[in-house]
Amino acid sequence: MRKQEVRTGGETGQGHSASSPAEQVKALVDLLAGKGGQGSLAPQTPDRALDSPLGPHSNDWRIQKHREALLSRVRGSPELGSPSPRLSSLLLVEGLTDLQLKEHDFTQVEATRGGWRSTKTIALDRLFLPLSRVSIPPRISITIGVAGVGKTTLVRDFVCLWARGQVGKDFSLVLPLSFRDLNPHEKLSADRLVRSVFPHIGELGLAGATRVLLILDGLDECKTPLDFSNTVACTDPKKEIQVDHLITNIIRGNLFPEVSVWVTSRPSAAGQIPGGLVDRMTEIRGFNDEEIQVCLEQLFPEDQVLLGWVLSQVQADRALYLMCTIPAFCRLTGLALGHLCRNKPEPQDTELWPPRTLCELYSWYFRMALGGEGQEKGKASPRIEQLAHGGRKMVGTLGRLAFHGLVKKKYVFYEPDLKAFGVDLALLQSALCSCFLQREESLASSAAYCFTHLSLQEFVAATYYYSASKKAIFDLFTEGGVSWPRLGFLTHFRGAAQRAMQAEDGRLDVFLRFLSGLLSPRVNALLAGSLLAQGEHQGYRAQVAELLQGCLRHDTAVCARAINVLHCLHELQHTELARGVEEALESGGLARLTGPHHRTALAYLLQVSDTCAQEVNLSLHLSQGVLQSLLPQLLYCRSLRLDTNQFQDPVMELLGSVLSGKDCRIQRISLAENQISNKGAKALARSLLVNRSLTTLDLRSNSIGPQGAKALADALKINRTLASLSLQSNTIRDDGARSIAEALGTNRTLSVLHLQKNTIGPVGTQRMADALKQNKSLKELMFSSNSMGDGGAKALAEALKVNQGLENLDLQSNSISDAGVAALMGALCTNQTLLSLNLRENSISPEGAQDLAHALCTNSTLKNLDLTANLLHDEGAQAIAVAVRENRALTSLHLQWNFIQAGAAKALGQALQLNRSLTSLDLQENAIGDEGASAVASALKANTALTALYLQVASIGAPGAQALGEALAVNRTLEILDLRGNTIGVAGAKALANALKVNSSLRRLNLQENSLGMDGAICVATALSGNHGLQHIKMS
């Protein structure tokens, strides 16, 4: 405890002064009690800073000087120190995913559709504090984020806030270093590392009571990869060792063991640090919709018209909009589109905008840079062809620098690097260079330079490779090495494509996209005269398209590299393959597309197609082989439909592996109407034990029995994300229902459960009822078409007396008679949560209707009651009508096919004159006749609540229709009237037609099968010419 600074020196002495073990224990207990809320074995570090707003040792002049020095470095950036909400709250993540470790940043954003994988967040001011009272502060923390997301900005914000005493008050010292500072050094000691950068710290030291935070920003920019397996341990802080060895020893704790270390990195580079050494990992999320708009507003604060146009272009292109979740890319996009709009294209360029591809967008940015965006207002932009030769030469040297940096994974450059590649240092501050390179002042060495975004380095590198490959005779990737002669652009392009396909980390993916895009006719037109020769693409484009498509043959696996080939074809504007597969996807014709190139195109569409944005529908005859090839891409689908594919249990093993992946983003999956048995259900259940994304699982119409249901139920006892499960039309029987009931006893997240058509009898129903007495989270239970009978109904009734969570209960076709209904209605008298009750197709007689009526007079929450296809007759319906007069909650009442006649219709009509809550009444397939229709029509003249009235096949003739017509002439609320299957004839049609001339509320009218004749149809059609409310009418 003393080491963790929970105990002071005096408290330590107090413990030692106790003579016996019992007294020592008592002293420790008293000590913890005296600490009050902070008496925890975990150090509550914030409280050590309460003595001063700037934290411990704040009065030491060297620390004060250090704070001032840090503030002076960021004084030129007024926005620092006020982090945005995005940087003020980081995502807490559990390690790196395969996607992050192996793929390009752009691929990560495209695959995940710009979303983030964690909902857990941590505030910036708690970044280095314990997560709970029984944990300790992290020693090694890593914050990851794709290039351009704001990692360095975050570090600068934190340092600025710390220097002002606003965060990290428990740290006496914060020492921010970047790998850009360390790269120029070959060897360093731990002491010299700190003192060479922060000489003003003096002898304060980095151990003892002083708590220090060492920040290492930009691990991905380290010139030498960290190798933890082959680094020799070093514990001497004065010994000079290689810089990468120094960093590994600091992270391992061999050096500065008491110092907290914060590393920022792109995800792929963060994988160099073994997970066992990392105490906390956080991630910076990208922009959300609102932040994208705010970013663009900051670019055009005084031109709302320009802002609106730029924003509309970004929102219209889904792929572009996803990439704009990266802040640096969003700004680059805004600048390029703003330049495009300000400088209206010349007549020959009008077909070149807006940009359709990534390469086109960057070409516009290039034109902005080459054309001098910063010139005086009102002055015409110079033509690209008029650019000085020196400008083109500068672009060429920058391209060579960018390309060789990309090949060697080098993203930070120093003056010797620039000189080696012929970059004129005197021109670095020119408008042209400033659009591509940004200068960073190093703390301990000469200035460092990097491209304003990684993608710009890749684009400039592609322009260099494009130009150089037309005259190079050796492999450009092995400059300075030995290679076979390579002649001609196509040969070099093939070499670049092969290297990109073989690169396991995807670092050449976007480079190859840009290289392909430079052969697009639109890009050629944009850059002709500056970087490209007019029309030269025509000699290469078709052959390059064939070469790229050739990369997808010979059983190529559907992987990120293969999908990138489709991106290249898109940049080339050769979209026939993708368009053909998309048409098959929309029409349900995927079964005939079985080639490797088709599968790859489908995987590509899963990422970029608007069709797949909300839901991926792969239903109907998808083969196991195609599905297996798509598994890596299915991870990132939000909603996935795989219905009616004849999938059997082996496919469930595959899907289970997907759902078990920590990358998995699937929220909804439907596997209805396949051939899944118990074995397949068990495979899915195993995945639910670890899955944290799935909220809806639809397994209806399969062959899952009691054992499969038990496996799923066991998973529900642990799973805390699944909210909806459908096992409709399986065979789980009583045993399966018993297992699920046990799960409901502990599960608190499942809210929707479908168990229709599962041969569940009274025993299984009893178990479910017992579970409902405890469960408060289930909102919807669909239990129709089972065999529960009156015994099961009575058991559920007892549960409803206790349960206060269930809102929707479906008991259709369950052999429930009056005894069961009496029990249910008894429960309904006290239940205050049930909103919908379905009792269709049971055996409820007039006697049971009396119990229903009594419950409706008492209950004040039930809104929907379905009594279709029972045995109510007039007597039962009249009893319900009396209840409707008093009830103020019911909004929907279904009485279809209940042998109701005119007497009950009259009673219902009288009830409607008083009722103000019922909005939908269904009396279809009851012989209410003209007399009953007239009674209901009379009620409509006074009723102002009913919006839907269903009177199909109700023995209504012309007199009834005439009465309804008179009501419609007065009524202003009815929107739906269905009179299909009656005999209203021409006279009835004319009456309704006259009403339509004045009625403005009716939206849907069905007059099918009513012997209207030509005259009746003409009358109605003529009336419609003056009616502006009716939207749908059926008369044929």
UniProtKB/TrEMBL annotation:
One of its GO terms (molecular function) is ATP binding. Keywords: ATP-binding, Cytoplasm, Leucine-rich repeat, Nucleotide-binding, Repeat. It comes from the Eukaryota. InterPro entries: Leu-rich_rpt, LRR_dom_sf, NACHT_NTPase, NLR, NLRP_HD2, NOD1/2_WH, P-loop_NTPase. PROSITE patterns: NACHT. The keyword DNA repair does not apply. Residues 1-59 are annotated as: Disordered. GO terms for biological process: canonical NF-kappaB signal transduction; negative regulation of canonical NF-kappaB signal transduction; negative regulation of immune system process; negative regulation of inflammatory response; negative regulation of interleukin-6 production; negative regulation of tumor necrosis factor production; regulation of innate immune response; regulation of primary metabolic process. It holds the Pfam family LRR_6. Directly interacts (via CARD) with TMEM173/STING; this interaction reduces TMEM173 trafficking to the perinuclear region in response to interferon stimulatory DNA. Also interacts, but to a lesser extent, with TBK1. Interacts with TRAF6; this interaction results in decreased TRAF6 'Lys-63'-linked polyubiquitination, but leaves 'Lys-48'-linked chains unchanged, promoting TRAF6 protein degradation. Interacts with PIK3R1/PIK3R2; this interaction disrupts the association between PIK3R1/PIK3R2 and the p110 catalytic subunit PIK3CA/PIK3CB/PIK3CD and reduces PIK3R1/PIK3R2 activation. Belongs to the NLRP family. This is NLR family CARD domain containing 3.
